[in-house]
Model the fold of this input.
Amino acid sequence: MSRPADVVHARVAPSASRRVFLKGGVALAGSLLLPLAIGDVVHAAGDGAQFREINDWVRVDADGRTIIGLSQAEVGQGVYTGLPQVLADEMDADWRSVTIEFVTGRDAYRIDAANEAPQQFVGASMSATMFYTRLRIAGAQARSAFLRAGAARLGVRDTQCVTRDGRVVHPPSGRSLSYGALVDDAAKLPHDPQ
Done:
């Protein structure tokens, strides 16, 4: 029977000093905060577009660019694609003009979980389950606001209009208006409850 080879245990001295470790830690922390700082600068130094709020989840500017707010962080489950598409589809927004932005601080963004006070959090793969219906309703409310504003501007009943790719269309006459052209009027309208 062969004998196991003798194992030599050697203690390897760490090659990095405490100072190097701290510098690395500070650099890492800074790199994690940098995207937040850049985002604020880009937002502040944007092109000056005035986005009007349609509801807690939707803002639109005069060019028809749409910002969909999402209160759930993207941690690999695809919510920054799936959930905004639900809202955009319900709203009939032009997906090419949609931007997603993280939002926080409103009751609409909170989850009422079990016996705890409503709060905003991500966990347990609940994002799609908890926000699918809310975002469909938000999209339908936005679509309704644009439909009513467009019908009023065109001088027709809203039942005579349809929405398509960020526009309100009156099929009998072929006339249409973009959501951007209607955003000021739509933002003033009350929301349909459902």
User: Anything to note?
Assistant: The longest strand covers residues 66-70. Residues 3 and 94 are 74 Å apart (CA to CA). Residues 34-45 have pLDDT under 50 and may be disordered.
